[in-house]
Specification:
This protein is α+β, with helices and mostly antiparallel strands. It is built from 18 helices and 20 strands.
Length: 549
């Protein structure tokens, strides 16, 4: 099914790389966003549907180089299809791809073969029919045996493979087969099996079967922002089954993801439909003040308020949803991403969640500073409250009970409290022994204004103190990202792509593959920011903002 995969990859990548230009917000931002017309062909039980809602030819004018044409040429190289000659003349303003079913014949004994459906909107009906005839003529000349069938008034053309046994079908190269049809003057359909096309036609004629009849889809569609370039709808329990994940908890039934072009990048906005009412979290109407102590050199920053409820917050739920999809794992991905904090927890005996998060009621900020050939260093900033003195005293007690020493030192004019591990080394000098005491610093903290700042080393604390005028809040790229996130919100997770790339790829190997597939997009990516900014009973809204060059 290389033609289907190539075409969809091409169109999806065009829709994102087309947003790299500085004037990209001029595309798709006026008027309302209509629901994908092809949703009527998709089963309401389908795992996923992706729709690009603009014609690709609206986007190339925004490109600054020849990457777009190279992408079209390379992805269609083995299909005998010329985009400009064969597709461009008739393609309309929608391309939809759906995984229509997890198993076409619904027989698990012979293995799973997912059903794939692609619908391309038509703006020139005659030319679209000519294309379908031409396409299958080329398949026949290449040796394929074709069947033409009338099904409920629609002409289907497909390669004849249905007479194979289930075992043959499962072990054959059927994934490279294709079936097609032109439905009225609206859509050209392609699928990897005629059964998928027949079910698509059935879904149109029995409206209660298709996606538009799904209550969750209707609710999510109402939250799609104006001018969305593309939409993705996920049936989450089925997606988990498809990916072989056994979810420990299923908070959400479905998810709608939309892509909206912004002046400084691309906003991927999401609406999650929950099974039960959601708890509301504290909202912020301005940037987190604690970020003034995170240096501009940070690769990652997490900021918000009231750490005691972070694990149950909407932001954490959104982050978990996004990282589970990327990593294919349900592990605590924040712990994996900020691994240095976990390593420090083991060495000091201090538990972040129980011994620190529980007493942080105000603002907080966490930052990772990249270091060449060494583990990234960290900064933790907490706004002081009535619970702060007791919380810090508790940390000092734990450090002492784990064999660390408590020392007061001066860094220039700033007084620090250091947790140190003292050791002695012995040397022989003539006929007597000499001992030297060495101190290994495991952590330091200090008070500045209304904030308590923790770092894992004196060097990192020195960088914080010397870079307060050049902090992350003064970073233009960070400011652009925060400006694109709706207010009020629950805080944000900010990643500088260039600085955090080595950390991310070590924890999420799939990113290396995504960089190859989406090279034009990742080549221009500067940062991404995740935020949650609203919940209504059973709906959670949030987004990921990508800034590009």
């Amino acid at each position: 099914m290389s033609f289907l995969a190539a075409t969809v990859m091409m169109l999806l990548l065009i829709s994102t790389t087309g947003c790299n230009a500085k004037n990209s917000h001029s595309v798709g931002t006026s008027g309302t966003t209509e629901s994908p017309g092809a949703a009527i062909f998709v089963s309401k039980n389908a795992p996923v549907m992706v729709s690009v809602l603009v014609n690709p030819d609206q986007l190339p004018a925004l490109q600054r180089d020849a990457e777009l044409s190279k992408l079209k040429t390379s992805l269609l190289a083995n299909t005998d299809i010329d985009y400009q000659q064969d597709i461009q003349p008739w393609l309309g303003k929608e391309v939809t791809l759906a995984v229509s079913t997890l198993d076409i014949d619904r027989n698990s004994e012979n293995g799973r073969q997912p059903g794939y459906l692609m619908a391309l909107a038509i703006q020139q009906p005659e030319k679209s029919r000519e294309f379908v005839e031409l396409f299958f003529s080329k398949r026949a000349l290449a040796g394929a045996t074709l069947t033409v069938e009338q099904y409920k008034g629609v002409k289907l053309i497909y390669e004849t493979q249905e007479e194979k046994s289930p075992e043959q079908h499962s072990n054959s190269s059927s994934s490279n087969s294709i079936a097609g049809a032109v439905v009225g003057d609206r859509f050209v359909l392609f699928a990897n099996h005629p059964k998928v096309l027949r079910e698509a036609i059935n879904n149109v004629q029995a409206a209660e079967l298709n996606l538009t009849s799904s209550i969750q889809y209707q609710q999510a569609s109402q939250q799609v922002p104006t001018g969305a370039l593309a939409l993705t709808f996920l049936n989450l329990p089925t997606v988990a089954e498809w990916q072989g994940l056994k979810l420990t908890s299923q908070t959400y039934d479905s998810q709608m993801l939309s892509l909206v072009s912004k002046p400084k990048g691309l906003l991927a906005e999401t609406t999650l439909i929950a099974k039960e009412d959601l708890t509301s979290s504290a909202q912020l109407s301005k940037p987190v003040g604690a970020l003034q102590y995170i240096p501009n050199s940070a690769a990652l920053a997490v900021a918000g308020t009231n750490l005691s409820s972070l694990s149950n917050s909407n932001l954490a739920q959104l982050w978990f949803q996004a990282t589970t999809a990327i990593s294919g794992s349900q592990e605590d991905v924040i712990s994996r991403l900020v691994k240095p904090l976990g390593d420090w927890q083991k060495s000091t005996g201090i538990n972040w969640k129980e011994d620190i998060f529980n007493w942080v009621r105000g603002e907080y900020a966490i930052g990772l500073l990249p270091r060449k050939q060494t583990t990234p260093e960290w900064i933790f900033v907490a706004e002081k409250s009535e619970t702060t003195p007791g919380g810090i005293a508790r940390l000092d007690e734990i450090a002492l009970s784990n064999g660390l020493s408590l020392n007061s030192i001066n860094l220039d004019t700033q007084k620090l409290t250091a947790w140190t591990e003292l050791t002695t080394t012995k040397t022989d000098v003539k006929d007597r022994q000499s001992f030297t005491i060495q101190a290994k610093v495991d952590g330091v903290h200090t008070t500045i204004g209304n904030y308590e700042i923790f770092t894992n080393s004196i060097e990192t604390m020195d960088e914080v103190l010397k870079n307060m005028e050049n902090s992350l809040v003064n970073n233009r790229n960070f400011q652009d990202s925060i400006a694109a996130i709706p207010q009020p919100n629950e805080g944000y997770v900010y990643l500088d792509w260039t600085k955090s790339q080595p950390i991310l790829e070590s924890e999420f190997p799939i990113l290396k593959l995504l960089k190859v597939v989406g090279k034009p997009f990742f080549h221009n990516l500067r940062s991404l920011t995740v935020s949650s900014y609203g919940s209504e009973r059973r709906q959670l809204k949030g987004g990921i903002f990508f800034t590009t060059e």
